[in-house]
Predict the 3D structure of the following.
Amino acid sequence: MTTPIIPTIKRNVLLNPGPATTTDTVKMAQVVPDICPREKEFAGLMKGLRSDLLRVAHAPADQFTAVLFCGSGTINIDICINSLLPEGKKILVVNNGAYNSRAVEVCQMYHLPYIDLKSSVFERPNLADIERTLNENPDVAVVYCCHHETGTGVLNPIREIGAMAHRHGAIFISDTTSTLGMIPFDMVEDNVDFCMASAQKGLMAMSGLSFIIGRKDIIEASKHYPTRSYYCNLYMQYDYFERTGEMHFTPPVQTIYATIQALKEYFAEGEEAKFARHRRVYEAIRRGVARLGLETVIDPAIESGLVVSVKYPDDPHFSFERVHDYCYERGFTIYPGKISTTNTFRLCALGTIDVQDIEDFFVVFEQALRS
Ligand SMILES: *Cc1c(COP(=O)(O)O)cnc(C)c1O
């Protein structure tokens, strides 16, 4: 017998909007004996994982299911849009930022009929505009909106948008990639028919595993919708899971082990305690930004509490890249913004980090600005 080698792993504080800082136990959970994912043992692991994901979203197991995919989070956007639009119907994208624009791009790629209801990236979408658009377009069968526009930090009023979609006989898909497991979300109360996320964000696991949680009856009905992709088809993957308990094609084996460990840690930390931790990390970021006299672009009243968009300092010598590199060399990662009209960078409250990490970061960040 050889003794296992447990390496010490450098801890980096990631302030980018995912992948997030993970625990060493999640990292190490990936180091397992080789296994063929077609073994019953592995299917059993995925069964537990899928039901735990429903618990995270507060989705009742009799009406909802979790369907797993191998890919980054964007695969979910692609799958939901191409799989859930019936023949001859339109999709309405409520668009106030970069991640909603990604859904518009998916519609374009598949040549689907869509309405791009664009509004300011600095604000929440206007509910009256959505209502009017739905009244004028009775052929809208799918309404789509991000829960949290990760590009800016704006939290969208999904509960109201979902209720409106339902009143007009449409289904509601929400991209919850950057909120699930980090701020309150309830599939039923929030009027969401399909939500989505990937393992490397709120769950604090590794990248490569994405999942869609949605209504079984709608997925069953989508069997008769036009098929627009082979690999990225929701019904096909769901049906395979139902019949075999497995993914249709090779799953991201090691990421699945990491996600199972991450979910154990999620339930051990507790939903409320985790939400509170992200909140205090966010508040520490806001305090640090204010202390340095930097300006932010989004009104805190409409922020998710997970992303802060900060304007570049008003100094001709400021270089984002040099500040980034200075911080990166010292274990802190900051991230560029996604607002085309203003130069911003983002500081995010994802991952297994706490207030002390943010205070340590601001010491380094201030040195970076000075140098
Ligand atoms: C991170 C994120 C995604 C997925 O991005 P990938 O780079 O494909 O993992 C999708 N939507 C939102 C809102 C996100 O924050």
